[in-house]
Amino acid sequence: MAPDDSIYDVLVIGSGAAGLSLALHLAGKARIAVLCKGELKETSTYYAQGGVAAVLDDKDSTESHFLDTIEAGAGLCRPEVVRHVVENAKAAVQKLIDYGVDFSQRQRSDGTLEYHLTREGGHSHRRVLHVSDATGMAIESSLEEQILAAPNVSVFTQHTAVDLIVDQAGGAPRCVGAYALDNEAGHVRLFRARFVVLATGGASKVYLYTSNPDGTTGDGIAMAWRAGCRVENMEFLQFHPTCLFHPQAKSFLITEAVRGEGGHLLLPDGSRFMERFHPMAELAPRDVVARAIDFEMKRLGVDCLHLDISHQPEDFVIGHFPTIYRRCLQFGIDITKEPIPVVPAAHYTCGGVKVDLHGRADLDGLYAIGEVSSTGLHGANRMASNSLLECLVFADAAARDILDRLPTVPEVPDVPRWDESRVTDSDEEVVIAHNWEELRRFMWDYVGIVRTNKRLERAKRRVDMLLAEIAEYYGHFRVTRDLLELRDLARVADLIIRSAMARKESRGLHYSLDYPETDTSVPARDTILGR
Question: In angstroms, rounded to a whole number, what is the distance separating the alpha carbons of residues 307 and 244?
C-alpha cells in the first residue's frame, strides 16, 4: 500500500477503455496511478455488447463513416474532431488486436478468414467489429491483463474520488491531484500528480432505468464542474431503445446488433411499426427508435414492446448472440423461438467536460477522455459503436500530449491532507437512500425521453432542494461512497436540467413538446455552462 502522500506523474481516475488505454500508452515512460471506485473491470466498457466502429471493408470509406457520424449528430458535431476520430479508427483497432482482443471472424468463400463486421443504427455500411455480443468484456479483460503487467503503473481499487485539487499559488490555477476515499479503510487519501486524467464514464445512473453499472454516477463531470471547468451539451442523454424488460433483469442491454442482424421491433399484436417513424426502420438512429418505442408504449398503455430475432436460424442466433441467449434463457425467454420484451433505458451521456482535440479541459493539468468528456464527436446524438472508438483515439491523443508536456511541468507542490476533525459518523444513512431514489425517479419522470417546460421546472425545484440538503449533510458527516455518489448525481442532474431548459428547440436526443421543431433560423449551437 502506497503512503497517502504519494506523488505520480499522471493520476488516472477510471479504469474503462479510456483510462486503461491511456495508462498503457504511458506505461514505462511515466509513473502512473489508476484509481477505480470498485474492482478494476467494474466499468461501462465491460458491459458494452456492440463493438468498435472502424472502416475495414473495401466497399466502405472513412468519408462515409464521417458523414454518417455528422448526420447522426444532428448538426452539433465538430467536423475536425469527427474526421480525426474516423481516420484514426483503424490504428486504434489494431492496438486492441495487439493487446490480444480476438474480434469475431468469418470464413470467406475462398476459405480464408476476415473480421466479421456488423451494422448498427445510423451506419450506412457494416463497419462494427465485435467479439460476439460481449465486445466490451473482451476489451476490458485484455486491457486489464496488460495493465497489471505494465511497468510503473499502480492500481488502486475501491477508491472513490472526492474532489480535484487545484493549486492557485503559481498564478494560473492548476490541477495537482485529487482526494479519494478508500472505501474499505474508510478514510480519505491524498493523491498528488503533475497531470490528472478523468476517465470516469458517464452519468446515466441519474435515471431510474439505465443499462449502466451502478458506478456510473457522473463523478468526473461533477468534480470538473466544482473545480471551475465548463461542461457542454448535458441535455443530450442517449436512451438505448432496447433493454430487457424483466423485474429481475437489472441493467441488461439487448445490443443494437440484434436489429443490425435482422431483428424486428413489434407491437403487442405482433406487427412492426418502425417504418412509420423512419425510412431506416429498426436501423434508424437511437433517438428516433427510443422515441418511437416510448410513443407506442404510451399510446397503447403497455409496459414494454418486443424485439424479435426468432425468424433467423437457431444456430445463427446463438452463434451471434450467445450472451443474450443465455441471459434471456435464465428468465425463461428462448430468443430463438420467441420475441424479447424490451424498454428504453438511459444509456450514454453525449455531453460532459468540454475538451479540445488533446483531451485538455479548461483547468491546466486536467484531461478528460471517454464518456466523461464532450469532444464534439457525438454532437446531439451518438452513433452506435463510436463511443469505444472515441475512448481509444482520445486516450492516444491525450497520452501523446502529456508526454510532450511532461518535461516542462513543475514539481507538484505541497498539499494539505483531508481534514476530518470536525465531522462525525452519520446516524441518518437512510436519508441518502431516500434522496437517491427521489432524484432518479423525478429525473425519469420529468427529464426523460420526452420533455416539457413544466416538467423541467418541476425537476429544477426538486433538485435545488436536494442540493441544499446534500450540502448540509456533506458538511457534517464523514463521507461514504454512497454520499459522494449522491452528491455528484445531484450536481449532474442540475446540469442536465439547466441545459435542457436553455435549449428552445428539439434536436437529436433532446425532444421538447413545447419546442417540437429544430430551430433552423440560426446556426446550431452548443449548450455550454460555466462557473
Answer: 10
pTM: 0.91
Nearest Cα to Cα of residue 225 among 487, 17, 6 = 487
Helices and strands, counts by H and E, the chain: 15, 20
d(CA 58, CA 241): 31
- 303 neighbors 297 (Cβ within 8 angstroms): yes
**H or E element, residue 462:** helix 453-476
Taking only the tens place, the pLDDT of each residue in 304-351 is 999 999 999 999 999 999 999 999 999 999 999 999 999 999 999 999
Measured CA to CA, the distance from residue 127 to residue 65 in angstroms comes to 9
pLDDT, tens digit, for every residue of 166-196?
998 877 899 999 999 999 999 999 999 999 9
Please tell me which residue in 119, 192, 259, 286 is annotated as part of the active site.
286
Asked if 106 is an active-site residue, the reply is no
Strand positions, DSSP E, 303-436: 305-308, 340-349, 352-354, 366-368, 373-374
Q: What is the dihedral of CA 23, 28, 32, 34, to 10 degrees?
A: 40
